[in-house]
Amino acid sequence: MKRDSRLSSVLHALLHMAAFDRPMTSDALAQCMRTHPVVVRRTMAGLREAGIVRSEKGHHGGWVISADLSRITLRDIHEALGEPAIFAMGHRNDNPSCLVEQAVNARLGDAFDEAEKLLMERFSGVTLAEIAKEFTARYPKERLETHTHGT
Questions:
Q1: Taxonomically, which superkingdom (predicted)?
Q2: Residues sharing a CB contact under 8 Å with residue 21, sequence separation 6 or more, in sequence order
Q3: Dist. CA 18–CA 92, nearest whole Å
């Protein structure tokens, strides 16, 4: 089962952008995210609409973070990505009139709703600044520039 890793990929790119501290092109971000520049532009468009990033035109242009890292939460980024489904599991709806299926779906639905609510609460309490701080603590300053260019 394929997992949706967009949130993780976008966080990776945003942390590179924060560390790089100047515009990054879609090509450079595509290397960070290990994807195609078109995917980067599509993804960044949602983040731009949410006020998280902006694009700068010109020779030294590219994408930059436009919001205060301490005000951007994981939930903000999740919502900017279009609120992708949290769980790959779902209800079986082969026979909606089946009473067993109805009972199972009701219990699963309650559990999924509670789990998603808890996760969104946790996402609301984690800022990009906190993750960036952890990232910079893991990398000595002299390696930061190399890492930003390499991955």
A1: Bacteria
A2: none
A3: 43
